[in-house]
Design brief:
By secondary structure, the chain is an all-alpha fold. The chain has one helix and no strands. It has one domain. Keywords: Coiled coil.
């Protein structure tokens, strides 16, 4: 009877040992996932901190492009009018020369 009780205790200890090992491995995996999530959060927070500077830079670039557009529109105005006049003259000449 003592031998059977000792064997039962050994079996239970082996089962418990295996269960503890499995739980410890699962805990380590979950702990690793937590660390990965913490790192992900930290990198996203860092990216968010950089965002205002990126927005300012993009707004400044947009302002520069708008100023350039305004300058081009200003330059195109008289040249576009002159081109339209030249085309009208050419059409009129072609009509006069046509038989």
């Amino acid at each position: 009877a003592l031998r059977a009780a000792a064997e039962a205790e050994e079996d239970e200890a082996a089962r418990l040992g295996a269960e503890v090992d499995r739980l410890q491995a699962e805990r380590a995996a979950v702990e690793e996932q937590c660390q990965l999530r913490r790192s992900d959060i930290q990198s996203r927070e860092a990216a968010l901190q950089d965002l205002p500077a990126e927005v300012r830079s993009t707004e400044e670039e947009l302002e520069g492009l708008r100023a350039r557009l305004a300058g081009l529109d200003e330059a195109l105005g008289p040249k576009g009018a002159r081109l339209s006049a030249l085309r009208a003259e050419r059409s009129a000449k072609k009509e006069r020369l046509a038989p």
